[in-house]
Amino acid sequence: MKEMSKEISSKSNHHIKLAKSLLNRKSREKEQLFVVEGVRLVEEAIMAEIKIRFALYSDKLAASQRGQQLLKTFDQKGVDVFWVEEKLFRELSDTENPQGIFAVGEFMQRDLSCLILKENSMLLLIDGVQDPGNLGTMIRTACAAGAAGVLLTKGTVDLFNPKVIRASMGTIFQIPVISTESNERFLSYFQKNKIQVLVADAKGEKLYYQTETQGPVVWVLGNEANGPRDFFLDHADEIVRIPLLGKAESLNVAVAAGILLFDHMRRRQEKPILVN
């Protein structure tokens, strides 16, 4: 497949330098570009019609039938593809066992107008979570639970961090994920659309399964160490907690998200929605 692409052998090549710089958040924000590494994740990005600027690959990718098909897809879509020798590719890679494919894509531009709400829709708002593995897992969980979207507040780890993308298993391309620097904008959206705000906090007096919900809801989970910020606590319709029966003082925030979202989905399926 090398004949379909150009070759890069120098670290000083513009494409190599740009791709490597995108492992840094400031560079991603400046260029409005991010990197996707690994066969499955690149396939997911293509299926989601992410605009791919260019791709770098090594012989390891071309050695597999799936990899050859991916290269053909790039060719069909007119994506610039560059072959990189294995040693140089490993220096570029952000993973321990690179699969030989590294794509550079343009930021997805998403806002609240992208959300499609139904009578029983569920949203997840993530407030200040710092660990990329937690954020990626929470996005993946929200997608699996059928959430209509994920909302990220200012101070939350960068959505396009490569570790977030890997932990999400590509679901950031499948579910609307919307960031904003204005918590007031989120609140205004909730009020306009009559979305019940349920905030999970260790100090909540009510247990999460004691909540009575009707219509769309948003579950709010906060920073790993400090929990949700006062803004969301002050504007919550309910502040709830997950009971801890053992000696553990807290739950991992991504685990908590899984409990809340999937139990909410279960209760919605078992209990008919009341209509006034």
List the helices and strands and how they pair.
Blueprint: E1 6-8, H1 14-21, H2 25-31, E2 33-37, H3 39-47, E3 52-57, H4 59-62, H5 65-77, E4 80-84, H6 86-92, E5 101-106, E6 122-127, H7 132-144, E7 149-152, H8 162-168, E8 177-179, H9 183-192, E9 196-200, E10 206-207, E11 217-222, H10 230-234, E12 238-241, H11 253-270
At a glance:
This is RNA methyltransferase. This protein is an alpha/beta fold.
CATH fold description of the largest domain: Alpha/beta knot
Number of discrete helical segments = 11
> Which range best describes the helical content: under 10%, 10-25%, 25-40%, 40-55%, 55-70% or over 70%?
25-40%
Q: Cα distance, first to last residue? A: 62 Å
| SSE run | EHHEHEHHEHEEHEHEHEEEHEH
Q: Main beta sheet, described?
A: 7 strands, parallel
Q: Mean pLDDT, nearest integer?
A: 92
CATH architecture of the largest domain: 3-Layer(aba) Sandwich
* CATH homologous superfamily title of the largest domain: SPOUT methyltransferase, trefoil knot domain
